[in-house]
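hey so i finally got around to running the thing on that chain from the lab meeting. sorry it took forever, my laptop kept dying and i had to restart like 3 times. anyway pasting the input first so we r on the same page abt which one it is
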Amino acid sequence: MPLRSIIFGCFIVAFLPIQRVSAADTVVKVTAQYRQDVPVTLDIAYTSEITSLDPALATDSASFDAIENLFLGLTDFDPVSNTIEPELATNWTVSAGGLTWTFTLRNDVMWRRYDPLTQTATSIRPVVASDFVYDIKRACDPRLGSYYGTAIAARVIAGCDVINGMAMDTATDELVYGDTTQVTAPNETTLVITLREPASYFLSMTTMPILRPVPPETIAAYGNDWTLPGNILTNGPYFVQEIFRGVRRVYVRNPELPSDLAGTGNIETINNLTIEDGFTIYALYFERQYYDMDSALVPAAETAKILADEGLTEEVKQIRDGAVFYFAFAHDKPPFDNVHVRRAFSAIIDRQAFIEELRGGRGVPMIHFTPPGIIGASPIDEIGVGFDPEYAREQLSLAGYPNCANFPEVRILVYQGALSWIDFLFATAEEYLGCDSRLFSAKERELSVNPEYTPPRLNAWIYVWGSDYPDANNWVGDVLSCHGDNYFMRPCTATDDLIDQAARETDPSIRADLYRQIEEAFFGPDGEFPIAPLYLRADYVLVKSWYTGPFETDTHFGVHWDAYSMDMAAKLAARAAS
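ok and heres what got predicted. didnt touch it at all, straight out
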C-alpha cells in the first residue's frame, strides 16, 4: 500500500507582513492593501515534503495534492459530488467486448511554462493524445521504477505487463515506446487504450496521476530535472513558482485555463510550508500577530479541549480521509482458519467504544469494508454484523470452543504505537468470550511494512487501506478477493465470482447491487469475514471562517485548491486587529 494511504496532511500559514492599523482605519486600509498588494492567498503546510511532481513517480499525499492542481487528466473525481466528470476527455466509448476504450479529447488546453523570475507564463502548445500515449508507455518502463506503473497500469493495460516485467537491463526505448503496450493516438484528439480484460472500473482509474499526460519534449530536454520551477510544463489550474525543499512551495493560478475547467474558488496563490512537527502547526493556528493560519489539524491530545471550546464551534470540522483500519485474519493458520472464530472475534469489537477510548472520537465505525464516497460503496451502517456479543458466543461455540475452552494461543502483528488496540481486543475477548488474556500476545512492526513480508507469519495483524482509485473494486477486488494480493490466504469462493462480475459490469446500478451482495457475503451474519473492519479515519481540523470549500468531500485523491475560496479582506482585517 502506498504511503499516501496512511498519511493525513496538516496545514499552517506563511508570513503576510502588514502594518498595524487602528480599529477606525481597519476597513479602509485593509481593503486597500488587499486590492493593491496581496493576492488571494491560501497559507497551508504539510508535515512531509513532496517526493515528486512527476505524475508517474509520486506516491504520497503531499505530492498528489500538488499534481492534482498542476496536471489535468482524462477525467476528474469531482470534489463536491464525488462523481467522475470529464476533464481533458469530452466523452468516451467502450467496445462491445469491454476491452477497447476510445477517448475524445478537447483541443483548447495548453501546455504552459511559468517563469518564476518574470512571473509570467508562456503557452507552448496544445495537449494532444500522443502526450497520453507517451505517459502511459513511460509509466510501464521498468527503468523508471514507477510504483503505480506496476500496481495499476501493468495490471489493466494490455502489453504494459510485458514491458513492465522486463529486466531493466533488457528494456530499451525502442521496446518501451514500441507497439507492445496497446495505447495509440490515431489523431491529436483521439486516444485508444486496450485493456488486458474487461474492466468497468478502468474509468475510475482515469482520474489517477499515473494516467495524466506529460510533455515528452520537456522530459527529453531536462531529464530528472524536468519538474523544477522554470523547466516544468503544466496544463492545470496552477503553476509552480517556487520549491525550497524542506521549507516551502509556492503555486500561482493559471488564468488562461478554459473557464469550464477552472474551479469555482478564488485562490490565486498557495503558500505551502513544510513543518515536520504537527503540534507546532496547530500552535501557530492561534498566533495572529505574525501568522495568518488558515487551517490546522487538531492533535489527538488536544481534541477534547477543542471540542469543548464553544468559541471554536464554527471552526471545527471532522474530515474523513478515506483510510479504513482493520484486523486481518490468516486463513491458513488456526484458529482463524475457522470462519466461526473470525465471525466471533469481529462481533466482540465495540467499534464506537474503540474510537472513543483509543482514538478520542477521531473515526467512524466500519462494519463492512468499502467506505462512503467510493463508487459502488454500500451505505456505511446498512451491511455488517457489528458489535453483537451474543452472536459472537454462538459462533465461538460452533467453532468448537464454547466459553473459549481449549482455545489455542494467538499472536497478532501490530504497528508501533498500537499495542493499546490489542489490549482492547484481549479485554473484550476475555469479557465476552471467556478467553484467558494470556492466550494472546503481540509483535510490533512499522505501519509501512507489509505483513506478507514480516516473518514469521502470525495469526492476525492490524493494517490499513486507502484507495488508489475511487471504485469499490479497489477495496473488495484488490484487497479481499482471492485473486488480489490476498495476504489472508483465503480460498476462492462464490463471492469472488461476484467480484469478477462487478468488475466487468457497466451498468452503475447493477454494479452497486453486486457490491452490496459482496459486502453482505463478507460481513453479514453468514459472512466469510476475511477481516474485521474497525473504523474509517476521521480527524478534526480547525478552519478559519474566511476559508471555505468542500472540506468534508474533497478528501480522497488530491485536494482541488481551485474549489476553495478566501475572503482575503476578512483575513487581513483579523490580522490587523490582533
